[in-house]
Amino acid sequence: MSTPVRVRFAPSPTGQLHVGGARTAIYNWALARRTGGVFILRIDDTDPERSTDENVSAILRGLRWLGLDWDEGPEVGGAFGPYFQTQRSDTYVDGLATMRAGGHAYPCFCTSEELETKRDAARLKGGFAGYDGTCRSLDPETVAVRLAAGEPHVWRLAVPEGRTEVVFDDAIRGHLSFPADALDDFVLVRTDGTPTYNFATVVDDALMEITHIIRGDDHLSNTPRQILVFEALGHVVPVFAHLPMIWGPDGKRLSKRHGAASVEAYRDEGFLPEAVLNYLALLGWSLDGETTIISAQMLCDSFSLDRVSSNPAILDTDKLEWMNGAYIRELDAEGFVAHMIPWLVDAGLTTVEQTEAQRAWLLQLAPLVSERIKRLDEIVPMVRFLFMDTIEIDPAVREKALTSENARAALAGARELLSQIPDFEAASIEAALRAVPEIADVKAKVVFLAVRVAATGTTVSPPLWESLELLGREKALRRLDAALAGGVDDPATHP
RNA sequence: GGCCCGUUCGUCUAGCGGUUUGGACACCGCCCUCUCAAGGCGGAGAUCACGGGUUCGAAUCCCGUACGGGCUACCA
User: Fewer beta carbons below 10 Å: N end or C end of chain A?
Assistant: First the structure.
């Protein structure tokens, strides 16, 4: 019987949930779900300068949007709370007491200025530039006096004497070894009494009984330091798994410049959460090297750390969009309409509440659109023509498609036949338009292009027959008339 | 400077001593077709960063170099 997995995602609310953090969360969540373990969300807000409540809510929203749920943490509680580090001050006081009792921490009275000059000097000479241990060798009486006098001080970790190296087995990168002499007595508690990240995170991970720490690569060098704290606390060292970074398309740090950097920005650009989850999950992890579409359920059934890649990945927006398109196409009409309505409402094309007829009409429209978009934000430009009273036609397009004699003959013929068909449904419309070339003596291509431009305003649109049907006979004929009237001055060709 | 990590088609990856290095996106061509998509078929694209080893045999193991990245804060 092995101990149940307890993993955590511990973001600092210094910004929104970005894709790198989202992927870390996904992997933690997936491992918990896979193993029947517990997924914990903890807010590491020890940096008062940059942490905000808005960022906290944005992160929670982003996680929920992706479909992640946590078993312990903000909004859900849990036996190991509170789950905000700013609410756990006592915990760190206790943690420091434990460290002191074991002789693993000591006060340091060096000022920032002193440290800075020493550090600069050390780096100039080359080699190790960490804390030189000045205050470590202070005799106990002196320390007691200075402490009693209330002299400002921080608390530092006392790296064990004689420790030569810190080794651990990373679940992703394998056996790792760090020489201990490159580890300095880093600060655990600041002058103001607040804990530093490297201390707070270990105290909490220990207390929350975290078994696996899955986090970004940027923490790899912190790990030996943190292991020393786990040991000093007398706690078993969890398994570590360090994820490689995610880079922007130019190989640089991911930022707004590359389009969306935050998960919610992807939502706003019309990405489906399932697609973003799928894409991110596969950015650094693979099921078998073949599978590209994988559901959340499959992820939870098959995720394992040993299939996580150890090399950094570049975010490929093209592939994400392709994947999003694949998910959109999988939606049935009902599902797509549900996604479509908010975008239509935002554009002022329809209302939140639909009549029975409007709903039926949207259900008919859905498959025409869902098959040809990669993102939801393409919906409005594609269907706007159906909602407008009149449409604008680009002069160049008009010139190309509507003004030639052939085009006018085609439009006239189409108008004639379309006004005669008994019903105004796609099949009849198609039959009518296919008959136009012969009676008007023009090429089929000319007919279809002219009617398309006249009815939709563009050369590219959803399928013509269906578009005309959705437009309705009255509106469709009006547009053909408008095209005929707007083309040339001579109205002789009017029916 | 020191310590650490990484390097397979443009991109994401499969590979874990013996395969013609497989798949996906993007790209190109053909088919389908009322435009655009979608779909189908096919193509091009990787001297597995480089140089040494180990081995009968290396993309796979070891060492070095180059390049990229991280840490080296009283940030996280």
Answer: N
